[in-house]
């Protein structure tokens, strides 16, 4: 019988175990899934240190969005411990210019202003059109699940994760050094983290597989759970 590999699931900003709910249920026969939380850590490095401190000696890791950047940092710090890597709807770059960094900071300041004025539920409703594909926004149950998940977070958590995003490292030089089996998933309709950087990662990580999830925006594991589960199952069994 194949040994079940420990699988660390790293959520994106304002997400928790609910983001990975479908995969945790569907993949428990071949892995030991565990969702990691970041507490009030406000840097990618601190988040990665927390992941490693609680991780088994060897593990597979899948990260969504901000969680993908944390997974890359985990690989940089402890490549010998990571047996498989999955990166979902993420990016590997720091801001590409001073102007780009300033524009991103202004956008994130706007997020915080909305959250403080409307509460976290109001922020989730504000952000939802940016992170969910148009057709999936018509699914009332899905929308309710995403909003409820983010509404459970605090403005302090949003501020901490915003700081982490703004101070993120650049992983361009790390990509060619990644040697473990790697899955890269992009949402075909993801406006927030478009396909382009995923193709670049796939080109730089030897032997990696790029899976484009049709009909999905940024919240892939919730928007198209069956397709994401299939991709992750194939990766775990490869």
Structural notes for this entry:
The chain has 238 residues and is of the alpha/beta class. It contains nine helices and six strands; from the N terminus they run E-H-E-H-E-H-E-H-H-H-E-H-E-H-H. A six-stranded parallel beta sheet has the order 2-1-3-4-5-6, sandwiched between helices. Strand 5 (182-187), helix 7 and strand 6 (209-213) form a beta-alpha-beta unit. The protein starts with a strand and ends with a helix.
Beta-strand fraction estimate: 5-15%
Main sheet: strand order: 2-1-3-4-5-6
The largest β sheet comes out as: 6 strands, parallel
Distance between the terminal alpha carbons, to the nearest Å? 15 Å
Tertiary shape: globular
In total, the number of strands is 6
The whole-angstrom Rg is: 17 Å
Which residues form runs of ≥5 with pLDDT under 50? Answer: none
The total count of helices amounts to 9
> What is the chain-wise order of helices and strands?
EHEHEHEHHHEHEHH
Going by helix content, strand content and strand pairing, the class is: alpha/beta
The overall pLDDT, averaged over residues, is 97
Proportion of helical residues? 40-55%
